[in-house]
Batch of 2 targets.
Target 1
Amino acid sequence: MPDINWQNKILHIDINSYFAALLQQENPKLRNKPVGIVKDVGRTCIIAASKEAKKLGVSTGSNAYEAKLKAPDIVLVPAQFDRYLDATKRLKKIFMNVSPNIYIYSLDEAFVNISHCQKYLYPDVEQLAKNIQQQIQLELGEWVTSNVGISANYFLAKIASNIAPKGTVLTIDENNLDGILAEVPFAEVCGVGLRLEKKLKKLGVTNPYQIRFYSQAELELFFGPFWSRELLKIAYGEETNHLALLEKPLSQMKSVSRSITGYHLYDDEKEIKAIIYNLISEVIHKVRKMNLAGRQVSIFLNGQDQFWADHLTVKHFINHEQEMFEIIYNKLYKNWKRHFKIIKFGVRMSLLEKMGQNSLLPNWQKTEKIHQAMDDVNDKYGLFTLRTGALLNQPIIKPEVTGFLGDRIYQLGE
Ligand SMILES: [Mg+2]
């Protein structure tokens, strides 16, 4: 018997074509038209598409040129991450009214666990799902439709909403479980990436159910100890390791990082310095907002197919831009014998702890005063209103919210 407690009830809500639907809601002229969202003006990678564009074969990740071949009338619009985040915060409120046990999984996806209150509050779970769909439309507009998947664990609830027709509710229960596992393609199964899917295909396995034909020992030969166990859970529809982590409390962030892929290969020292400073500013801004400070900083650089990284751990806590820059740029980066041009930059602060009386050195306090004043202005008028010298005359890389909310404590105040 698979390890599933059918008394548990989890809902997975997934907004259909989120970014495009919000845009079409706001601008009725774009409704019923193929729309592609690009990251920024002049960028060509499509990060989201309207349902009309998807029907014509435009998918996330395709470039503007390919998209125009498939949908000549496609309208390309730059993303507005601030707005998406704002809408997600409104969604969060709706979900919180249903149950306090919610997990925002990405900007347009959330889990609501009603296991503890279902029996008395929501005897008809499908009706609850429909009510949620309606509330979303009331809050964000009629154009914003959603799928709701219902099942006994996170893994199955997500499959249910993935395979449900757009705008509908689907329940996976004891009766339809095996049939669905024998039909659902791995692309719809959370945790099975493209590489794993290809490896499975070599064994002739194209759906979760077929994994049952292999023993754990056999699977271990191909996939190693971790994945053989994980695959057997997937085969029977049990909670996977990745999603079980959702219930672990997000006590505190252990690290904050930020990376960016540039527009070209970077060779110019001034440009490189500015980008590094820029990323550090954002990391520090987040760290300070959460009232944290860290003792370890790292830098990561990618060339076309090269990689370099270095880090330094210090004795005292750091939460100032200049100090992080001093270590990353002057101590780490400058000591690197640069042998490739850079396309991707990343910085990280880790070993984070709550900022208490960590540092009372007079020097720290002086910098702290200046920094607090900068925070106030940046909070009021937007990050990078006050910029340090290194950023002047350089294009600013604005903070953005990615699809997956890796830093959701910061973004959603969880
Ligand atoms: Mg979606």
Target 2
Amino acid sequence: MMNLIRRQLATVLTLVAALAALGTVPSPASAQDGPGIQYQLHNCKMPSTTVRWSDQTGGGAYGQQAIEAAASWDSATPLTMQLVGASPIHIIADQSYWGKTDWAGLTQGAGGGIPSCTSVMGVWQNLPLKIMLNTYFTDDYPANKKQSVFAHEMGHALGIFHQSHPGTTCGGLGLMYYTVAFRYDVCGQFLPQTDDVAAIHYIY
Ligand SMILES: [Zn+2]
């Protein structure tokens, strides 16, 4: 039964991912996708369960929170988040001034393109994915809020789309809920939650 639900969900999510790739992210699928299942998938994943990531933040507060974010996925899931300085690199963590956008963090494919893969639950094609914080906003964030954004963007790179949670209470809310204003400012979340961990177990 669960597999059937997940197959149906995967079909819906393929469509969502396709729309997202066009730059139009529709409202999340219903929170009634299945008991206990609110995560949604990009249907693309890392090439191995050892994820090689590179810190290009230049250190300081950003570097420390990128390291903490990677460590949180490493300790909460079967994935090994390995900090490396040489190829192959799967994820680059960085920050940059983007001005007054409507996002505090972003995940891009290599060369700035939209991350994509050619088959459902295939491997990202344009590695390394680059996760970036927008310093316009994040320079003023406390350490754990920076970490919440880094960890959220890493979640995208690992293959998790935004959580289909109503966002009215903190119960069951995951790191992959889309706004840091609710996720962190209201719910105080900066570590992978039960739903996020379930998504990783499903993907890998
Ligand atoms: Zn996001």
